[in-house]
Amino acid sequence: MSGLTYGIYAAGQVATTVGPPDDPNAIDDLVTRLSGGRPFVVREYLHFLGTPADPEKVRVLEPERRMRELTMPDEWYTAGNRRLDLVLCYLPVERDVDGWLDFIGQAVRRYGAVARLLQITLEPNFKLPWIDGSSPGVLDALIAGTRHARRLLDAAGHRDVRLGFSVAEPPEFLGGDEEFWAHLEALSPADFAAHVDYMGLGLYPDAFSPVPKSAVAGLTEHALRQLREQNMPRAHLGPDVPIHVAENGTPTGTDRTADDQADRLGIMIRTVAATAARLNVTHHELFGLRDADSTRPEPMSQFGLTSSGYQPKPAFDLCRKLIGEGGPSMR
């Protein structure tokens, strides 16, 4: 196993699915057990909804509260070799790049001293509701937002914060994303690529459609190779820019047992580790720690390594074992 830095989304909410409240004590215990004291990334999300904001998104996402406080206290994200990976999501009803830049400024002022990774937009190539790629003006939000965040971080002295963005899986999973990559290809490197420290990938090869277990390894490697060999060069992002598997998960559900989830997740983790050196993959973040709501059967509700009541599934112990074998040494 390679020396990847592992991590996880530790909160419970997944898009519109909101189950039991998060339990900070359970999160602390489970994340500590997973990481084993090794460097470990914890992923969180903030959402820009524009003006006027969609009332339903305001109700579900609570953007003002989340700007004040994340799932855990600030100091927790920097203790025990943990590192905060903070994602800024662009979800306005109407194009609002100026408001977005102000939002980035708020986030840098509030969390710049806490975060170690800052992601500008979530999957801007993915045109689905509640995902940034569906939002008007998302390409300009990504490009202008990345440049703006770099200036703000440098001005505030947060030069150790790594800046990046993430995309969804290969184009055949999406119905095509040529417009997105063509837009980045047309930019000069100085306008965008020069400001990007890493490239994130949302990796869900078998989560939303039937896939035989025997195909999971090939689909996982294909997603990584598609990004490294085909799409990143178009965006002027060279082999020195690392890939972060920013989200990786597979659910339990009515047609997938907890043991099957563990088997499939193990295949993905081992495949990423086996290709990490060749494709310059440095981080692998799981999605997520707990189910959003184990009582609901749809995939979005049951991605967790534990139930929504924090009872570990077989995938939890497997991931703890693989992280122990493949993560950087304790320091």
From TrEMBL:
InterPro entries: GH. It comes from the Bacteria. This is Arabinogalactan endo-beta-1,4-galactanase. It comes from Actinomadura meridiana.
